[in-house]
Each structure stands twice: as C-alpha cells, then as structure tokens.
Amino acid sequence: MSLILKALKKSEEDRDKAAKPPADTSPADETSPPEPSTIEPPQPEPAVIEQTAPISPASKSPRPMLIGAGAILVLGIAAWAIFQNPFETQPPSPTQPIAEAEANIKAATIAKAKAEAEAKAKAKAAAIAKAKAEAEAKAKAAAIAQAKAEAEAEANIKATAITKAEAEAKVEVVARKRPIANDAADFFQRGQAFEQEGLFERAIEEYTQAILARPNFAPAHFGRGWSHEGKGNHDAAIRNFTRAVELDPRFTDAFFARAWAYEQSGSSGRAIDDYSRVIDLAPNHPAALFSRGFLAFYQDRMDSAADDFATVYEVAQGGLRDYALIWRYLSEVRGGADMVKSMTAFEGKGDRETWPGILVSLFSGAVQPGDALVTARHDNPKTQRENECIAYFFIGQLHLIQGDQPGAIEFFRKTIATGASQLRQYAAAKIELKRLQH
C-alpha cells in the first residue's frame, strides 16, 4: 500500500512540473532595467503552414501522458508485489496475538490440570499402599499378640494347676504332721503350720476352729488377723488384731500387727499411734522404731525420723542397722543438713561390700549403682526381685538428693516394676513419683 501511495505522489509531482512554464533564463540587471529605445522589436518570420492533421488541445503536451502511463505502470507493479507477498506489506490482524495468548493459556491450564490429576492419583495410590501396609502390620502384630496371649494363658493355666497341686500337697503334708485337733491349742498349731506355708485360707479355717473352741483365745485372733493380712484383706486383719489387744492390752505384737495393717491401708496417723504404743510397751523395739521413723519421713518430719533411725542403729542387729543408717542420712539431707558433712556418719560403719551393707557404700561414693545391682543378685528369683526393688529405690534416692530428678524418676519407676509390693520401698517409690510428677 505504501508503494502505491508513493507512486501516486510521484505521478502528481511529475504532472505539476510538466504544466509549469519554463523560466526566463536571460540575464537581467537588477539595478538598471534596459532602455526602451535600445531594444529592437522582433521581426516576424513568414509562417510555414504544413498540411497535416489538426492537433487537439490535449495533445499539445505529450509529456504528462507519458508520466501518467509510468504512474500506472508503477501502480501495477506495486499491486503485483502486494499480491505476491501480502504479509510483508500488510500489518498483522489485531486479534491474532490475543488468540495466540488465549491458546497458550488454555494449553497451560490443561497441562496444569493434567499434572494435578497425576499428582493426586499418585498421592492416592501412595495413601492406599500405606494404609494397606499399616493394616498388614497391625494384623501381623495382632496375630503375634494373640499367639503370645494364648501362650501366656496356657502357661498361667499350667502354673495355676501346678500351684494348686503344690498347695494340696502342702495341705496333706501339714495335715499328716498335725493330729486331729481336740482343743483350741491344737487348732491354733495347725493354723500356724498352714500360715507358714502361705496357705492362708486353710490357716483361717484352723484359727477359726480355735476361736470357736476358746472365744477369748487372743493368739488365735492374732494368727487369723495375720492370715487375712497375708491375703491383702486389711480391714479383716485390723478387726482381728483389735480383738486380740482387747483381750490382752499388753499384747505388743498385736499392736505392731495392727499398726502394720493401718500403714498398708493408708492410715498413717493410726499406724504411728500403734507403733508408739509398741515403743511404750517395749522401748527398744527396733521394728516399731524403724516403722515410725519411716512414716515420719514421709510426713516431712525429718528431725523425728532421724531420731528414730538413730535409735534403731543403736539397738538393731544385722541388715536393719544398715537400712537405719541410710534412712538417717536421707532424713538429715532432706531436712536441710549438709550432704557431705552428714556423710561422715558412714565412716567405719561395719561391712560395706555385701548386701545390704553395700548400699551404705553407694551413698558414701565408694561404689557405683551398678556394683550395688550386681550384689543384689540371688539364686532365688523372689529374693533377687526384692533386692532389686530395694536397690532401685535407694539409687533413685541418690539421684534425688543430687538434684537429678529425671534419674530419680527412672529408678523409682524401676522399683515399682519389680512388683515387690510387700516391701516398704515399693510404697515409698509410689509416694516419691507422685511428688515429683505433680
């Protein structure tokens, strides 16, 4: 299109030049025009007339016609060029970029949707695979647990049968040893024999026969009380011990037994009262002194506890002296005394290499916890479990006074895990854990 416009413009310019008269090229004096007298008028020449065809006014100037023809030629060439390659001369359609952009956006959207669909499919497949694996693992674990439970059940049934058979055998042996009872004393002796074998039900039966034969027989009430306590029936035990001290107000062992039953049932105040009654009746009763000191310790009356443990160390024999020494040290330290200064109480205090003396060496720093646990080993599994319960408890106490609460918690939990619930350390570990975790 631009070539056509240029050609038309060129044609117009050439036409204008052809129509313009030629300029006067004779020299002229700009200052003095020529005198009229000096210019001779031109003389006309005789005209020569040729007999030719008349010339039309339009053909008087052939040059504009040639220019027009050239313009037409140029226009034709330009048109031909445009027809041959229109994209070089025509601008792109204004809607073409928009269409291309829309197409690109649509393609990108489709690709994104496809990628998201594939990702979702993969995630779903992975979730299904994970769920399947977890289900299989759970099923396997359940099968193992069931098999283990069945095996344990069979073992328990077998153990129960063995225990029952052993108990029946013991009953038969005891019955053969003791003749048929004819009076309260005989029933009482048979009850003691069954009690010593741990056959508490049969013992209760024999003690009851003794009481029926002699209602005011205090030892029979006392024996039946211990058999109930052996079964964990604290209330029944307390009733029997109470009847025994009513029948014999100076029955020291009955007061001690009732104090123990009160302690096991959680009635610490009543237990302390009965332990004090025992001490009144027997001032150097080491078990009552130790028990009262233990309860005072867990009532945070550390001075009273330390005094009782100090007395126990002076009057007791054997391992109870070692335990009294340790508890006295703990009472002093927990009461605010200097830990290193209080440790001098351990110097020269008996055997410190065997059980339970090695526990004293544990607090003096002479041995490590591992050494104490090695010494706690025993051929009898029950005895070893009890020794471990005691060792774990005192290792926990060592961590506690050193400010290592996590370590203390760990060993108090191990104490409970032994299952030796008949020991004071078992109950004490529960108290310590409750305090540390609240």
Walk me through this protein's architecture:
- The longest helix is centred in the first third of the chain and has 82 residues.
- This protein starts with a helix and ends with a helix.
- The protein is built from 19 helices and no strands.
- The protein is an all-alpha fold and 438 residues long.
User: What is the gyration radius calculated from CA atoms?
Assistant: 62 Å
Helix content: over 70%
Low-confidence stretches: 25-42, 44-60
Per DSSP E runs of 2 or more residues, the count of β-strands stands at 0
- Compute the separation of the termini in Å: 96 Å
What is the count of helical runs? 19
Structural class call reads mainly alpha
The portion of residues forming beta strands comes to: under 5%
Q: Average pLDDT value?
A: 80
Shape, principal axes of CA atoms:
elongated
What is the string of SSEs from the N terminus onward? HHHHHHHHHHHHHHHHHHH
Largest sheet geometry: none
